[in-house]
Write a structure and sequence with these properties.
CATH superfamily of the domain at 1-76 and 194-248: P-loop containing nucleotide triphosphate hydrolases
CATH class of the domain at 1-76 and 194-248: Alpha Beta
GO molecular function, one term: hydrolase activity
Structural class: alpha/beta
Protein name: Glutamate/aspartate transport system ATP-binding protein
Number of helices: 9
Strand content: 25-35%
CATH architecture of the domain at 1-76 and 194-248: 3-Layer(aba) Sandwich
CATH topology of the domain at 1-76 and 194-248: Rossmann fold
Shape: globular
Membrane topology: Peripheral membrane protein
Organism: Paraburkholderia silvatlantica
Order of helices and strands: EEEHEEHEHHHEHEHEEHH
EC number: 3.6.3.-
Helix content: 25-40%
Length: about 250
């Protein structure tokens, strides 16, 4: 891991919804090959923060620099930037009218300009990677929630992203489906994918995260190496959060 190269650099971000200050001077970074978990109580701003990274949520102050490109610069091509940062949402966001193969080939062809044959080859490789090659002809509604989320991960990977963002990828799943998604994410981490993950899955955080960012009330309260966060969280808020999460 190149500890000196920030792929994602969040610099003093402020965001308001009307009079509601939802992100307050948030600063953190994700280095190349690093896995950063963002956690905190519901309503603390975690999902909003991760959505600002690829400009799905606008912000009013500060800047975010992704692989050297500023999101605030007028010259920045945001669609092109988004194509290089994979995003996996809580609710899959698959196209229900397309089979799995076409779900994985559409953006490859339209955004990356790949021909049909190359896109299909990539789709087959990635469906096999997430254990779903036998379902390539099926539609999303024919799959379980865990399977759909694995397809969503494969679709994000089909764009050859430089980094992956995960917004609570297991929170909409039945408990027995959570591990099948986390296993794919753990494998990505082992392969060195740069990842920023909003999650309540503290076992996953302990297992693969290099750092943990803890948020409360729109602010980043702690930004610590994983072992420091779990063994000696500095803030009372983080200690309360961990006591609730780890005792359930």
């Amino acid at each position: 891991m190149n500890a000196n190269r920030a792929v994602i650099d969040i610099r003093g971000i402020d965001k308001w919804y009307g009079n509601h200050h939802v992100l307050k001077q948030c600063s953190t970074h994700v280095n190349k090959g690093e896995i950063v978990v963002v956690c905190g109580p519901s309503g603390s701003g975690k999902s909003t923060l991760i959505k600002t990274v690829n400009a799905l949520e606008p912000f009013q102050n500060g800047d975010i620099v992704v692989d050297g490109t500023s999101l605030r610069a007028k010259s920045t091509n945001l669609p092109k930037l988004r194509s290089r940062v994979g995003m996996v949402f809580q609710h899959f966001e698959l196209f229900p009218h397309l089979d799995l193969t076409r779900n994985l080939t559409l953006a490859q062809r339209i955004v990356l300009g790949r021909d049909e044959g190359c896109a299909r080859t990539k789709a087959r490789e990635l469906l096999d990677r997430v254990g779903l090659s036998a379902h390539a002809h099926k539609y999303p509604a024919q799959l379980s929630g865990g399977q759909q989320q694995r397809v969503a991960i494969a679709r994000a990977l089909s764009m050859d992203p430089m980094a992956m963002l995960f917004d609570e990828p297991t929170s909409a799943l039945d408990p027995e489906m959570v591990n099948e998604v986390l296993d794919v994410m753990v494998e990505l981490a082992r392969e060195g994918m740069t990842m920023m993950v909003v999650t309540h899955e503290m076992g996953f955080a302990k297992r693969v995260a290099h750092r943990v960012v803890f948020m409360e009330d729109g602010a980043i309260i702690e930004d610590s190496p994983t072992d420091v966060f779990f063994q000696d969280a500095a803030s009372a808020a983080a200690k309360r959060f961990l006591s609730r999460i780890l005792h359930h």
